[in-house]
Each structure stands twice: as structure tokens, then as C-alpha cells.
Amino acid sequence: MSWITTLYETYENIIKQDSEGLLPIAHSTQNAHIEVILNSNSEMIAASFVDKENASTLIPVTEASASRSSGIAPHPLCDKLQYLSGDYEKYTGQKKRDYYDSYIEQLKGWSKSKFSSGKVNIIYNYLAKGQLIFDLIRFGVMSIGENSKLTDKFQAEDIKLAAGGQADAFVRFRVVTKESEQDAVWQDDKTINNYIDYYLSKQENKSFCYAKGEVTACSNNHPSKIRHTGDKAKLISANDISNFTFKGRFHTAEEAATLGYEVSQKAHNALKWLISNQGQRAGDKVFVLWGTKVQKTPALLSDTADFAEMLSSHIAFGDDKDITRKGLSKEFNNAIKGYKAEITPDAKLALIGLDAATTGRMSIIFYREYSGLEGHELIDNIKNWHKTTSWHHHYKFKDKKIAPFDGAPSPHTIATAAYGTEQNKIIKSDDKIASNAVERILPCVIDGRKIPKDIAIKLVGKAKQPQNYQETHNWYKVLTVCCAVYRKYLYDYKKEEYTMEVKQTDNLAYNCGRLLAVADAIESRALKSKGGGGDVRSTNAIRYFTRFSTSPATTWAVINNKLIPYKQTLGVKGSWLYRLLGEISGRIEPEEFAAASNLDGCMVLGFDTQRQALFNKSKENEITEEE
Description:
Layout: H1 2-14, E1 27-31, E2 34-39, E3 44-49, E4 56-60, H2 63-66, E5 79-80, H3 81-84, H4 88-92, H5 97-111, H6 118-127, H7 132-138, E6 170-176, H8 189-201, E7 206-209, E8 214-219, E9 259-260, H9 261-278, E10 280-282, E11 285-291, H10 304-307, H11 321-342, E12 348-356, E13 362-371, H12 374-388, E14 391-393, E15 397-398, E16 401-402, E17 405-407, H13 411-419, E18 421-423, E19 426-428, H14 431-446, H15 453-463, H16 472-494, H17 508-531, H18 540-543, H19 545-550, H20 552-562, H21 564-570, H22 575-586, H23 590-595, H24 602-626
Parallel strand pairs: 2-6
Antiparallel strand pairs: 1-4, 2-3, 5-6, 7-8, 8-9, 10-11, 11-12, 12-13, 14-17, 15-16, 18-19
Helix pairs in contact: 1-9, 5-6, 11-12, 13-14, 13-15, 13-16, 15-16, 16-24, 17-21, 17-22, 17-24
């Protein structure tokens, strides 16, 4: 019950602060299709369609109606036509009188109680007349055919009912009186609070609440719509008495645990609010980190740029990389300090991950609690993730311009790069495969665990195959994400540290990657000088990338031979590149090079660090020439 009590505590704190969007107990939301306006004499004075932008409506519910899927379970006030219309059978031919009788009897109980209000009485007195559809036809928001029955769809050229069919329309009410300032019943605080008091007064199922440790009215039917309004999956459910869900251990579901109605409502509503405001999704999975006192918490599944909330529109490809790096680093460190400042010795943070195995059943796939200064350890782990998985990237866009950033890619970006393919110029992956990978990466972020080896190896394999990407920027994205992850892989498993700067090392694979980057630079510069600048075709270094990674010595002989005409084109302008090629070659042992095969991810690291260094050097040369 730890997660329940934590969410219950959170609800009580949210309600004291900014509670916009937080559902009150015994209420849910529903998209309305038709709005009916009544006067103080219980007469319909207007009716209209509800546009989709304003369709979400707060409605009172019962335990049964909140999760109804079949059978008769009316909502207490706003509902579908089959519940509200005494003339439903007359205009549809469907025998639904039991639905109306059940609804009107339930509303009568509220209307006649001490918790009633003028608006509730007016709605009851109007609906008791049994002429709702007749009036809706009269006001032109419902249409009938030649047989005097409702047409399947509303018949009008310029208006379309949002519901699937007219008979399925959901109706909400406004009540216009001289006394009330708020005529929309779903926004009227008095009506909302009156219903809560009325419904709680009717609770008779008293039992021991395991969350609060006291005897109180308990719930047998817990809320759904946790991840979104169409979500039917429940976290707590025991209505399956035929398939041995709990039999064998307990005779009844209540023997397992009982939970107070108010606790259940507040805990589930707090979770809905948290997911809506700060939840992060990976496919059908959703993760949310929160503080019980509504502290600001970091976004766990974000890349460094989003984490620091700094991605300036003026930063474009080719701007000074060092400014980007220093600026982002400063903002990131300020964000870390800010999150730590929120965590006091009495603070409590919690992290929950949810997924639905079936349409009706949801499971908690991840749960952590951090008490007091344990939260600082969490923040430190997050900081370390962004530090050890940092690389220079060019795959984010702002105002249709590439916005480079130095930092860690998001877990979802890592998963998509590792398991995705290029589709319609975009890298896409199966949602289930990607979300499972995100779930495996998450402990690396929050617990400081090692990066899964198979994900790192998968990325290396993808990065070695540029021919699989028609869009060059897609391959560069996979390349830099691979570098970020493989850098962490080497740090986690071999205690080797690589940075975004060129490393002077005797590692064969790394130096082979550098060789390839210089060959790529020589050819691309020669092609640009011939064509007067602009984009050029793929170089031989890129074309032979995959083959070079498997057989570097024989492939390099081919690449090096093809460089001769490009060296002649560049002439003395490429002298510094030729010298660099010789320096790198001097670090490679000929015997080791000749015997090498299947180079590891260090080749990718070497290629990209040298590529970035050459790009920066080129920019420096351009600035010098201009000066």
C-alpha cells in the first residue's frame, strides 16, 4: 500500500496549492456532445452542439458508473440519452426504459436529500417529464427521418455531431437562475461539493482500510482512466471470480486487502493529475517522478537540452560549438542545483511506471521512493548519467533550423536509434520494442546502473551501416547517439574515459576511425572546391564504412588509392590533412592493422571525434581568412 498512501498524501498537498485539473472525489470527466440550457421553471430554453475543444466535462459518478462497461449503471447527473430520455424508445425503437427508470430514481434520491440544490431540482423536474429528445428535435440539434425515428447521423450540411450516432450522444446541462453566477453545472462548486457530501453519506460498506489503518467506507470498484480519458485499465481490480484470479489464496477479494473509498479516489485522482502534468510516455508505458509536497522534479526521460530547458532558436548548425557547450552546461548545472534545493530533509519523492498488459488490467512496472536526502542521491545519479553519456549532437530542430547541443540523448532517442529503421525520411521503431528498451535504460539514469551491453552493441551495428539511411542527417543522428552510449559502455565496463575531444591513444579501432574521418574530409573538400561549395555526394570513406569496419587493411588500400585524384585537386590546401593522415598512420602497428577485423565501437568514436575536430578546424580557418 506504499504507493497508495504516498499518492493520498500527495493529493492532500496538491489541493492546498495549485489544484487546477485535479479531480474531486466521486467525479470523473466525459466528453459531452450536446449542451442543454434550462430555466428556473425546468423548461428547455436552448440546446446546442459542444465543440471538441470544450467537450471535456466534469461529471459526478458512482463507483459503478465510473467504470461501467455493460449493464445499467447511470451517472448521477449528466449522461447519455438512453439514461436521460423518457422518450428514448419512442424515437429510437430501442427498449431502454430500464436505463431511464434507474437514472431518474437515482437522481430523485439526490434531489430529495438535504444535499440537494436548486440546479439539481430543476434538472430532475425537467427530466421527469420524459421529453428530452422531443425538445432536442424542436431546438434543431437532433433530426428524425420519415419514420419519425432519430436518424443514425445528424442530418445537416454544415454541422456534425461529435458522437458516433445521435442515439449515443452525451448531454450536459446549464441552469440559468437569478441567484446563481455560474450556470454550468459541471463548473458549479456548490453542486460539486453537494454531490460529494451526498455520496459519502450513502456509503455503507464499512471495513478496515489498509492504507489509513482505520474502519471506514471502503471501495470495491476502483477508478480507471488513469493514463488518459480513454484508458479502461485499472490498477486495483478483483471482479474476476471465475478464472481463479485470487482463488487458492483467498475465498473473497476482500480477504486480500480493502481500501477506503476516499483514499482510493484521492490516490487515483492524484496519479491522474501527476501523469497529465508531468508524466513521460514511452509507447503505452508511462513514468512519473513527483514530490509529495509538489516539489519540482526533473524529467527523467529527457535529453540534456530539454532537461536544462535551454534550446535557443538562434543556435544553428555551424555556430560556435564552444558557446553551445558552455551555455548548456551552465543551464544544466543550474537546473541540478534548483532540483536539489527543492529537496529538504523531510521531503519525499516517488517514481512510478505503469503499463497495461490487457485492456482492463494495469500493472506497476517500476516503483521507487526517496525519503529525505536520498533525493539528492537520485539527482546526483541523473547528473552523472548526463555527464557520462554526453556527446555533441545535431539532430534537434528549433524554428526549422538544426540546434546543436552537447549532452545525453533521451532514453527514447537511444531506443529508437538502436531498434528503429528509416521510414519516410524519419527513424521509427516499434512502440513496444522501444518502450521495453526505455524501461531497461531507466535504472541507468536513476540508479547509476551500467548501460545494457546489447543496446550498446546494437547501436554500434547500426552506426556502421550508413548505406541503410537515405537521409544523411539520420545516419549522423544514429552515429552521435551511438557515440554517447558507447562512451558510457566503455566507462561502465572497462573504466575507460573518452571525451568529445580527439584522444591520443594507440587503440587500433579508434585510430582506424580517425583515418576514415580524414579520408572523408579530403574527398569532401575536393568535391566542394570543384563544385563551388554546397552539398556533395557521399564520399568513398562513407561508402566503404561497413566494409572497412570488418576488413580495415584491405579496404583502406582501396580508399587510399581512390584519394589520389582528390589530393591532386586540393593541392597545397590539403597539406595539413595529409600531415594528419601521416600522424594517425604512425600510431597504427602494420602487423596489427593487417590482422584486424570486425572493429568495435571505438572506431565509431574515433571517426566522429575526428570528424568534429576537422569541422571546427575548418570553421577556424574560414574565420582567419575573413579576418
